[in-house]
């Protein structure tokens, strides 16, 4: 019974982790956890006894979050070979993985640590571009060379050095002494040093399989984990590796999982229960013991963000969508939902086309209902017609205010960052919504519960008339006055000085961001009002970008019913505005680089 309860609590914990890291829309708290998508890149140390399937089988047996596995495994392959023959890279690029496991050839970390690290960096860069995380598969020592695991000083352990020299196959080209000097770092640090160092450098995770193996080989009675070739794993060895991966990937103890793992009729492992339990305990201790934690626990959580845009009159909304997707690809932000706050029928289709191009066609997308601002767009129709997307007409899209309700209801309290770069019609509408199936709270209460901060591109500081506020003045006045969380304003004067767009001439032709600027102004620079709001929302809220802008927190933004605004020093509300600090050209370079990033 206790076991069951614990398992259930574990399941809930896993489910909450899932909401943090998956791309797919996560509506409501009862959505079953989306499987973790894991790609294994390596060689026979991974393929023998089908380690990936065994990992998936353990997760399946646990009954919590599932692990979907795929593999690119080539016998004897080093990371260098994986990079050079390009196929592993193609595979990494082919899908949206959550995790990519990298396994180096079994000797290389010790006898050519430099190359291992060099190619690990290249592969990890590809993994990061996909918004995925690297986990290194820290392997085990050969049965007859146990010092490989932790390494040994070759001068103090000449026997070890001689064996490694022998199996490295370099005796024809390099004499023993020279070789020892060349390999000093690898011989000293062993497999553990080589893997832990590179993982630390890259902010990656480690599945400490070799560390668990060492403990199991030294257990009383000792386990036999190697096969007869003294190198590859027997089924017990792979089972232990699978327990380490299960624990690493899901940040959960494998203790209590079955020793028999089947895939259909095929038995992948059949370890007696008492032995399985000891192996699970060893695996869990190894995972807990490596100084840095697994993928979920060690990484900063992405900002959970809702993006509301007019995507109509000006093209900076397109540049901003590109920035947002680039930041999402880098794992800095999770886009929860988007909304369009204007009536132009092409605007939502254009936004859907951009999301589709950036491989996030499933972002929940809403459109303003009822009266709202409308005008012509120089690019929205062109992008909608030239690039594929699923949404057929603006009318088919749900009410943005209701989409926001549904998404907010499923999020942890005080966690969501809302960003507006257009009129405030949807935000006003959201505040005025009543209880529904997703939440029994009214709009204002729901926002108060779930939203951390609203970052608003709007207003002119100290005072003036700015399009996002004046084009629906009553909505702006209502939303800003009644909004129940802190608001940060990136006023007109901030983005006015930051020119971006001409750099898109370097982007591939036929890509939608470039094309939108082409249609709008012939690929010339344009102000970056909207990009600043997204950049601030994603990178600044936890103290980043302190050198970009100063902030003023005293006072509040007063908005009249015609949308004109003025900053008033009293009373002091939870309003903040940005003030120029860094040279706008430097900020432009950062923004433009993000705008150029392709999926
Ligand atoms: Ca805008």
Written description of the protein model:
This protein is α/β, with parallel strands linked by helices. It has 2 domains: 34-151 and 185-298, SGNH hydrolase (Rossmann fold), CATH 3.40.50.1110; 303-596, Ribonucleoside hydrolase-like (Inosine-uridine Nucleoside N-ribohydrolase, Chain A, Alpha-Beta Complex), CATH 3.90.245. Helix content is 44%, strand content 16%. An 8-stranded mixed beta sheet has the order 10-9-8-11-12-14-20-17, with helices on both faces. A 5-stranded parallel beta sheet has the order 2-1-3-4-5, with helices on both faces. A hairpin with a 5-residue loop joins strand 18 and strand 19. Helix 3 crosses helix 12 (235-250), helix 7 runs parallel beside helix 10 (184-202) and helix 11 crosses helix 12 (235-250). The model is unreliable at 1-30 and 292-299 (pLDDT under 50). It binds calcium ion. Calcium ion binds next to loops.
Features:
599 residues, alpha/beta, Rossmann fold, Inosine-uridine Nucleoside N-ribohydrolase, Chain A, five-stranded parallel beta sheet, 16% strand, binds calcium ion
- What count of domains describes the coordinates? 2
Low-confidence stretches: 1-30, 292-299
Number of helical elements: 26
Give the end-to-end Cα distance, rounded to a whole number of Å: 48 Å
- The CATH superfamily of the largest domain is Ribonucleoside hydrolase-like
Name the hetero compounds present: calcium ion
- Strand fraction: 15-25%
Instruction: Find the structural class using helix and strand composition.
Output: alpha/beta
Any idea what the shape is? elongated
Q: Biggest β-sheet, characterized?
A: 8 strands, mixed
Strand order of the largest sheet: 10-9-8-11-12-14-20-17
CATH architecture of the largest domain: Alpha-Beta Complex
Work out the number of β strands. 20
Query: CATH fold name of the largest domain, please?
Result: Inosine-uridine Nucleoside N-ribohydrolase, Chain A
Helix content: 40-55%
Please state the CA-atom Rg, rounded to the nearest Å: 27 Å
């Amino acid at each position: 019974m206790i076991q069951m309860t614990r398992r259930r609590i574990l399941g809930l914990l896993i489910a909450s982790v899932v909401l943090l890291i998956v791309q797919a829309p996560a509506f409501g708290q009862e959505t079953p956890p989306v499987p973790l998508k894991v790609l294994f890149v390596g060689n026979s140390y991974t393929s023998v006894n089908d380690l990936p399937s065994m990992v998936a089988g353990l997760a399946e047996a646990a009954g919590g979050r599932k692990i979907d596995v795929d593999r690119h495994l080539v016998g004897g392959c080093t990371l260098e070979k994986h990079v050079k023959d390009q196929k592993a890279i193609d595979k990494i690029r082919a899908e949206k993985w959550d995790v990519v496991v990298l396994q180096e050839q079994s000797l290389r970390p010790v006898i050519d640590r430099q190359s291992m690290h060099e190619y690990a960096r290249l592969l990890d860069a590809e993994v990061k571009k996909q918004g995925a995380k690297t986990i290194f598969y820290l392997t085990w020592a050969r049965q007859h060379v146990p010092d490989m695991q932790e390494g040994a000083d070759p001068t103090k352990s000449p026997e070890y050095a001689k064996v490694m020299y022998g199996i490295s196959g370099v005796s024809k080209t390099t004499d023993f002494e020279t070789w020892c000097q060349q390999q000093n770092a690898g011989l000293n640090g062993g497999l553990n040093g080589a893997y832990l160092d590179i993982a630390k450098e890259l902010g990656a995770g480690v599945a400490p399989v070799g560390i668990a193996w060492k403990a199991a080989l030294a257990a009383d009675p000792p386990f036999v984990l190697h096969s007869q070739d003294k190198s590859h794993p027997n089924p017990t060895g792979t089972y232990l590796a699978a327990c380490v991966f299960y624990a690493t990937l899901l940040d959960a103890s494998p203790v209590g999982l079955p020793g028999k793992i089947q895939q259909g009729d095929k038995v992948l492992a059949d370890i007696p229960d008492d032995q399985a339990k000891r192996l699970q305990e060893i695996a869990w201790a190894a995972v807990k013991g490596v100084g840095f934690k697994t993928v979920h626990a060690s990484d900063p959580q992405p900002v959970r963000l809702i993006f509301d845009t007019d995507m109509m009159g000006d093209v900076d909304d397109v540049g901003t969508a590109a920035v947002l997707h680039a930041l999402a690809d880098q794992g800095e932000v999770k886009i929860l939902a988007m909304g369009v706050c204007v009536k132009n029928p092409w605007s939502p289709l254009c936004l859907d086309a951009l999301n589709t191009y950036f491989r996030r066609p499933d972002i929940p997308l809403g459109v303003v209902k009822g009266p709202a601002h409308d005008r012509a767009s120089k690019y929205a129709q062109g992008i909608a017609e030239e690039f594929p997307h699923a949404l057929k007409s603006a009318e088919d899209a749900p009410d943005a205010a209701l989409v926001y309700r549904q998404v907010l209801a499923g999020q942890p309290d005080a966690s969501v960052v809302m960003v507006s770069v257009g009129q405030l019609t949807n935000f006003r509408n959201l505040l005025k919504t009543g209880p529904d199936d997703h939440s029994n709270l009214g709009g204002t209460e729901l926002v108060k519960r779930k939203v951390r901060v609203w970052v608003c591109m709007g207003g002119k500081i100290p005072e003036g008339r700015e399009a996002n506020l004046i084009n629906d003045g009553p909505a702006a006045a209502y939303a800003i006055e009644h909004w129940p969380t802190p608001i940060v304003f990136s006023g007109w004067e901030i983005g006015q000085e930051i020119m971006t767009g001409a750099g898109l001439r370097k982007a591939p032709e036929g890509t939608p961001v470039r094309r939108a600027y082409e249609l709008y102004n012939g690929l010339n620079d344009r102000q970056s009002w909207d990009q600043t709001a997204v950049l601030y929302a994603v990178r600044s809220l936890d103290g980043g970008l302190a050198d970009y802008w100063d902030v003023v927190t005293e006072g509040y933004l007063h908005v009249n019913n015609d949308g004109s605004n003025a900053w008033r020093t009293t009373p002091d509300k939870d309003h903040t505005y940005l003030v120029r600090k860094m040279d706008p050209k430097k900020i432009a370079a950062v923004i433009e680089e993000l705008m150029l990033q392709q999926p």
